[in-house]
């Protein structure tokens, strides 16, 4: 599986959008198998990104810095929680449903 910025921006399987979260708000992102991925960059605010498996405790926990690019490539559901007001962009590439 290859990931490049050029491949990410080509084709109709890509969505580009803003992420605006108020303090305490959460946002769930689901990544599909077979090529799905998400790229998130926050420009303001502090957020945490967690991922748990089948109702267990989160196995992944990260707090990205402002301007830091976060690539989420493993299939599953991620929870993005704002610790304070957060603004960023999100690029979603849907999986290949063949």
Describe the protein.
The mean pLDDT is 81. The strands form two sheets. Strands 1-8-3-6 form a four-stranded antiparallel beta sheet, with no helix packed on it. It is globular. 5% of the residues lie in helices and 53% in strands. It has one helix at residues 5-9, and strands spanning 14-21, 26-31, 37-44, 47-52, 58-62, 69-72, 76-82, 86-93. It contains one helix and eight strands; from the N terminus they run H-E-E-E-E-E-E-E-E. It has a single domain, classed as Sandwich (Jelly Rolls), CATH 2.60.120. Strand 4 (47-52) and strand 5 (58-62) form a beta hairpin. The protein is mainly beta.
- CATH-derived architecture: Sandwich
For the record, the count of structural domains works out to: 1
The total count of strands amounts to 8
CATH homology-level superfamily: Jelly Rolls
Give the low-pLDDT segments: none
Tell me the helix content: under 10%
| SSE arrangement, N to C | HEEEEEEEE
Structural class: mainly beta
Itemize the secondary structure elements and their pairings.
Blueprint: H1 5-9, E1 14-21, E2 26-31, E3 37-44, E4 47-52, E5 58-62, E6 69-72, E7 76-82, E8 86-93
What descriptive keywords fit this protein?
Jelly Rolls, four-stranded antiparallel beta sheet, mainly beta, 98 residues
């Amino acid at each position: 599986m290859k990931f490049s910025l050029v491949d990410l921006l080509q084709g109709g399987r890509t969505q580009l959008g803003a992420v605006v979260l108020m303090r305490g708000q959460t946002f769930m992102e689901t990544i599909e198998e077979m090529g799905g991925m998400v790229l998130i960059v926050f420009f303001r605010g502090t957020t945490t990104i967690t991922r748990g498996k089948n109702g267990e405790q989160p196995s992944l926990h990260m707090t990205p810095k402002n301007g830091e690019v976060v690539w989420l490539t493993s299939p599953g559901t991620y929870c993005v929680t704002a610790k304070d007001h957060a603004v960023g962009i999100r690029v979603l590439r849907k999986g290949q449903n063949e």
